[in-house]
Design brief:
This protein is 81% helix and 0% strand. It is an all-alpha fold. The chain has one domain. Helix 3 runs antiparallel to helix 5, helix 5 packs antiparallel against helix 6 and helix 6 packs antiparallel against helix 8.
Length: 198
């Protein structure tokens, strides 16, 4: 919806080569600017990842020692910390984009390219993280006992491994869709604006 409003506003502006100031006003708009949308998405990502370990810990509140000695729990905490740091760096980059001066076309283009590259890293990183959790799921029952993992391991390998493959495929497509919806469409719009700059 926000992107549609921004496109409509862009179409209604007089036809001329946009100036740097025109572009900066457009992308910085507080209600529907792409920079504001990116900052909101990165901010939500940070808060969600900060809260998830606490939520997971409180689901095991009846036996906190079990959660605190769980390798799976600490692996998840590390993943969340990494995601928070990653989102914070991206948030800072977008914040810097709001106050840029000088050659707007060059600076904006470089920073959009950096964000696109980071989002590709994000996709690869999430795939690697899922593989790590699959390996932990298979290996941990030999070292620590978890009721759910014991039940999972009681199933045949012919069920478990195709399930892992299906999970990896599902994660691949859903993460690409989610990243495009939250970040990619705004970056694509910014790239289009960069091309229009004189």
């Amino acid at each position: 919806m926000e992107l549609d409003e921004l496109k409509q506003t862009w179409k209604q502006t007089p036809i001329h080569k946009p100036l740097n100031t025109d572009i900066m006003e457009l992308i910085q708009h507080k209600a529907y600017g792409p920079l504001n949308a990116l900052k909101r998405s990165f901010s939500k990502q940070m808060w969600l990842m900060m809260l998830m370990p606490f939520f997971l810990f409180f689901t095991n509140f009846d036996d906190p020692y079990k959660a605190l000695t769980s390798i799976m729990f600490w692996a998840y905490v590390l993943l969340c910390v990494g995601m928070v740091i990653f989102a914070w760096f991206n948030y800072q980059l977008v914040d810097k984009m709001e106050t840029m001066d000088g050659n707007v076309k060059q600076n904006l283009g470089q920073q959009v390219d950096i964000l696109e590259t980071r989002l590709k890293w994000h996709t690869k990183g999430m795939q690697i993280a899922l593989v790590v959790f699959i390996v932990l799921t298979e290996v941990l029952p030999y070292f620590q006992h978890y009721r759910m993992l014991d039940k999972w391991h009681s199933l045949s390998a012919w069920i478990r491994f195709p399930s892992y493959t299906g999970l990896l495929l599902l994660q691949h497509f859903t993460s690409r869709y989610a990243l495009h919806r939250k970040f990619g469409q705004h970056l694509a719009y910014l790239k289009g604006l960069v091309k229009e700059l004189q």
